[in-house]
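[Meeting: bench + compute handoff]

Bench side (C.D.) handed over the final construct sequence. Compute side (W.E.) agreed to return the predicted structure before the next meeting so the bench team could plan truncations. Sequence as handed over:
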Amino acid sequence: MKISQMSHLKRWLTAGIAIPILILLIGFSPRWLFYLLLVVVSCLCLHEFFHLTSPRLPLLPRVFAFALSLLFPTFFSQGLLPFAFAVLCFTVMMVLGFYLFSEPERRKEVFEGTAAVVLGFLYSGLPLSLLVLVDQAPRGNLWIFFLLAIIFSGDTAALYCGRLFGKHKLYGAVSPGKTWEGAIGGLVTSVLAGVLFCWIFDLHDSVGTIAVASAGIAVAGQVGDLAESMIKRNVGVKDSGTILPGHGGFLDRVDALLFAIPVFYGFLILRGME
């Protein structure tokens, strides 16, 4: 069996295991269990982010960032949104204080260290925490499935359309393997998946609105994929980790979601999260 074929087999086997677990946790489990999943995934993504971008970041600033990823879903689930952002500001103060009272050589890293903590959380922890707010809305778990259907179907279609029809590089300087044909195939598939999902589950009356929203979510997801590719290319690695066979790391798997979630959440806010 060729390496590429083995990689695809691992990819589908991993998806075959992960998808039923996601359906169970999002659709049928106690909500605290789903929120725990968000915390675990957020912390794993944060770990991979620091491994890629800030391998020399001291332990204490890392702990502050992981604490935010743990606390924000908890705050959101309890309706403590203003307090959550006060804690974020307090964390910045704590990180700056850590460098202030560190030895002189370490103080020179204050900008990089503080930026790594804040950006790491804003990049991975905060978007995933927003899913707690979505989940608390009426039919929230169905809306989360709607988001996942758009992103996962588009990601898969982009991969195979690119392999079958790809001739024109999408952004060769960042991700040489991605093509315009793959991106368009992924976008069309995402829109179809979003419209079909809403039709099956009667989530929205306007097909046009759902099509536009699905397209916006899909484009945000593709930009998120490119953003993570840029990070990996800058440090010279192919994958953010190896924990998911055929997919790489958790950051490789959810990179599109991290950009798509804020757009998706904005759409729900505009429609009133009814």
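W.E. noted at the follow-up: The beta strands are 169-171, 175-179. C.D. will use this when planning the next construct.
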